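Regression test attached.
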Amino acid sequence: MRIDLMSGGRRPWLIRLLFKVVERKLGVVPGPVQVMTYRPRMLPRPLRRYLSRGMSGVGPWSGSEAELFAAFISNLNTCHF
Amino acid sequence: MSAVLARSRIDGLDDVAIEDAANIAFHFNLMNRLADAFDFDLPGQGKVELLAQMLNRAKSIASKKRPSPSWKQAADGRVRPIEIALVHEALLGTVGASSLDLRCAVEAFTARLRGGVRPNLPVPEDLVPYLEKLSLHAYRITDEEVESLFALGYSKDAIFELTLAGAWGASIAALEHLYAELYTDQRVAA
């Protein structure tokens, strides 16, 4: 990470505790999770709800189709993440 | 955009399917820009599968609370999904390390670069190259460019907020075009 988002920020203690567990298991807390929790008041819960909607596989698109769209968009953006 | 929308409907897609596809595109346009700007770390060898399992578990929890799509016409006249409208207000209206005026200007600048309709607000010259890359080709952002922002006096929190506002503006422009079309069609139908 070019910016250390693990320290500072305004995360509630429960999230910080969860981060320790995830870091121990994966070696790293996924970047999107770090970003989404760094300033909870700027990126409030409705965004997390909205972003998970399309990927949930419950709507008209299956989980696999959603993953395919995601890969297509990431490819257009030349992003390897 | 209207031709694409008309074609999608001819192909048998209803508005919910179109909205959900746009939702995924917005999700990844935003996350790709943030991943490129911040250079997200990836889990080490053998941990990617574990990450996928954790994400799938999180998705199955989130899917139980799937909201029905709805939109809101904001004070600025633009139509956005209701959750996005709420976040837009929080992102540009919450006091932080960067000024609200600067965050609004950054969001407007990157949105305009992607065809969004925004007023032409002044952005500091020293931020322009970074914001142009963030909006148009974020994968070209380098360590040196982010370090130069620190050297210019921007704090970690300010860089985070401005990058977020910039990525948001660039990603939301296409979504607003789509919702404007959907909203207009619904109003005509009503």
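Expected vs. actual: identical. Residues 13-76 of chain A form one domain.
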